[in-house]
Amino acid sequence: MTPGILTAIISALTALAIPAALACFVLAGLRLRAEGGVNYDAGGGFFKWLLWAAVFLTLPGISLWLSNNGVPTLPSSSSGGTYAYITGWQTVLTAFVNDIVIQHLVPVLAATLVVKAILDWAEGNSPIPSVITSLCLLGVQGIDSLATGSWLISGDAYATTDMLQNMFLYLANTICPLVGGLCISAAIIAYVRNKAWGHLVASGLAFLGVPGLWLLVKAMAGVSLSF
Predict the structure, then answer these.
(1) Ramachandran category for residue 193: left, alpha or beta (phi over 0 → left; psi -120 to 50 → alpha)
(2) Average pLDDT over residues 98-127
(3) Are 57 and 17 in contact (CB under 8 A)?
(4) In a domain, 152, yes or no
(5) What does pTM read for this prediction?
(6) Which domain, by its residues, includes 217?
(7) Residue 4 above 80 pLDDT?
(8) CB neighbours of 133 closer than 8 A, spacing ≥ 6?
(9) How is residue 37 annotated by DSSP?
(10) Final residue of a domain: which of 157, 184, 200?
(11) Is 187 found in the same domain as 150?
């Protein structure tokens, strides 16, 4: 029989999954700026923090997958009195992430990135990376709403990979068309100002065609994937 204190600790950690995922989304935004702001490193910290956020939000699915493969798992809740000993810590940590980090610290970080964008511009560098990261940080709560809503459509054993797939589909179907439109608009402005515009048109068309490019890559590789 599982000791009561261990069951209570597991229950508390499971209850803290959403605050932990929120913290991971914040750290992903900060890593995005460190990796360039408008680009990311393959296998870098940005991807890793997004992966951890998906893992925290889909812990029940991971537990179900382990159970289906013969690995004994601990119960996710406790009805005994031991749980009360750590309820206070759970409440404090949840309040810290929601009240201190999300409500107060993230706006300050976003504001400092706006100032950095101005300083980058003053130095002759592009302010876009800092602006994009600032918007990403300010949208953490919206990202969390998507992650716990439309991205978390299944609670089965493959919930983690399903969430990651839905992240990609949201990027391809929602974000990429917006970026493509901005690239086309920038190409028009560059053309009017007699500046190089061909690469902007090509980038815009590529962003608009991300779903098609993904299908083309799958066809070239000769594999059949679930999305």
Answers:
(1) alpha
(2) 92
(3) yes
(4) yes
(5) 0.82
(6) 175-227
(7) no
(8) 29, 30, 32, 33, 37, 113
(9) S
(10) 157
(11) no
